[in-house]
Amino acid sequence: xxxxxxxxxxxxxLVKPSDNYFFPIGYAYVATALKSAGIEFDYIDLHLHPTxxxxxxxxxxxxxxxxxxxxxxxxxxxxxxxxxxxxxxPRLACILGGNIxxxxxxxxxxxxxxxxxxxIGEGEITATLLLQHIDVHxxxxxxxxxxxxRTPQAPGSHVRNARRPFLDLTSRNWxxxxxxxxxxxxxxxxxxxxxxxxxxxxxxxxxxCAFCSPTxxxxxxxxxxxxxxxLEYLISHYDFDYFYFINEVFFQTxxxxxxxxxxxxxxxxxxxxxxxxxxxxxxxxxxFMKEAGCFTVTVGLESGSDAILKKMKKNITTDQARAYIAxxxxxxIQVEASFIFGNFEETPEDMAKTVDxxxxxxxxxxMVLCITYPGTLNYQRAxxxxxxxxxxxxxxxxxxxxxxxxxxxxxxxxxxKRRYLNITAMDxxxxxxxxxxxxxxxxxxGYCYRQVTASTQDGIxxxxxxxxxxxxxxxxxxxxxxxxxxxQEHLCPECGEPHVHFPARIIPVLRQAQEAAxxxxxxxxxxxxxxTADQVRAFLKLGVEGFPYDKVAxxxxxxxxxxxxxxxxIGNLRQLSPEEVAHSADTLVALGAAAGDALxxxxxxxxxxxxALGALHEAGRLGVRSVFPYGRxxxxxxxxxxxxxxxxxxxxxxxxxxxELLRSLRARGCTVSVLILQDSPxxxxxxxxxxxxxxxxxxxxxxxxxxxxxxxxxxxxxxxxPFIKELTGYGNVLACLAACGxxxxxxxxxxxxxxxxxxxxxxxxxxxxxxxxxxPRPS
Length: 779
Fold this sequence. Notes:
GO terms for molecular function: 4 iron, 4 sulfur cluster binding; catalytic activity; cobalamin binding; metal ion binding. Residues 191-405 form the Radical SAM core domain. It contains 25 helices and 30 strands. The chain is α/β, with parallel strands linked by helices. It has five domains: 11-160, Cobalamin-binding domain (Rossmann fold), CATH 3.40.50.280; 187-371, Aldolase class I (TIM Barrel, Alpha-Beta Barrel); 447-503, no CATH class; 508-626, no CATH class; 639-765, Rossmann fold. β20, α18 (533-541) and β21 form a beta-alpha-beta unit. Mean pLDDT is 86; it is low at 1-5, 630-636 and 770-779.
């Protein structure tokens, strides 16, 4: 909480809601006006301090008013703040401002919230005059422009005065005050891993897009010299890396942009900067912007369909977008091209055109599902179509309206947490399926590293090297063929882009395995995929080229530890019960493990449903495939191929992995014998799972020379060697197995991600017996 100076009889409290994660620039501008009028205020940021006890604070402070502002989706939080204020002091003036007051019904706001006043439009002048009026008169401000107020004489009713004219941005240099804000906690960009400072070069917008409702109406620019003065002040008073101009329009005219660039180039200590730009801006300004330090321009590409752009009222064409983005690239200015799916009357063909355009332009930027915001043309369209029947309930639906993850928005929709308002020409299922398909096409083709090379010494661990498609930086990464996460999206270490990835198909053995799996899946009828939540999301986002996604009925969790409940969704895929899989699917596809291991893991979870899946597989009615040849458990034995065999297990790992292996073998009808150490405590722990013989090696080390004579004639068909972290002494284990006359030994990895590369190489190169290598996988 920060404090300032006296003027009114009591202080004012500004409160930022907990859900508002934006830089509090609106509060900073109001703070400038309050300071100019000598009004003392306190500020509480509930986003940064969600556990702050507002009620206890209000009981120990005597405020004139509580002032809150923000967007529509904060309405439940506004209600909680104002209810707390009135509970402490029913006479405490409660004032609401911000975008919500412009775009939503005043009547509903007064009925739903414990508020006394609305500040309509810009708050600098109106809020200051209102606070002075309350302090002096304490009665209804009947003649104050830009205010709506509750009428005590008629409960539930209110009066809305004439709106105040827009703030004159030229008569004085309106600059935000930042000394009361914890700036460092807002200024860090996770993507760029640098600190930025937000600046407004003006207010409002020149456009009238159907999906947007600018709080401040038509565009009004600040004088260039005012903006330069603010930048100079920020450079001298704060420590940060770059400026981010955050208003909808940078400057309105070519002359203003050039004047800014020339003036900024003369500032001492100037920072790099990024800005928004409409694509109808003259191309001639781009060279000036580059020279003045502009490193990124954000543009609203919005759609690759001219028909949709027209319905958006965007007033640009795809040809303009092509020319503008090409010109930015020619100047070596990075482009962030955002676009929207779920537009009014949009079709699958329109969405495909958008991804086609992004790929053609080699453009990158965020996609958002269209939010039908009150006050917009799209909202009016939705109301006319009967899609919105209750304005208040629409806003109160619990949700994160600006969730950047389209998969999570789908999960919220299907789970009933938040219904997505669909204004397209498609039903919900087709819309979401199209979004997933087109975004997978964009991510898999557009966001993969370019000019990728892969080198290896052992065929297991590869050194990958490629060029980031966004920043063109060279990135190197070590990847193992038994670790699918190595090929999932990650942060580029150069530019911070979170969706880049190395394609798994660059590795020949992975490409061959995927191609073979796809051939096998051609005959599949209905598919259930098996994996963790992260693996399923990666499957939907990056996918496997050529995979029959239209056959996928849902997913099965690969582990009970996954934080998902029955009936949950990942994107547009529903979690299936084993009974549903048994009834409707004929194929299981493992996303992060070898096929046999995936099935054994499911069966080992217990329950009739999972056992039924094993029975269906044994009966030939449920196929099991893997799109990843080894999986996260490493270069491992496919236990399915050992069904019914006599298997000797070397108990040379920790107790639980050994028991897991024994359970899996017993579930496949195997006769299980064990080779253990006399001094090992594992004997007691595995007795209940051994239905064959127990070969005990004296002492605490495996030694073929000390094996009992009876062990030298074992009739086991094969041996399985488990390990966890290291292979110390495995040569001795193999010698013991060979001495027992075991014809072949398989490696079974419990957690190969923890195995050092040199140890892994040793395992696959160990001779067994001397004339043949240890077999890493049954043929």
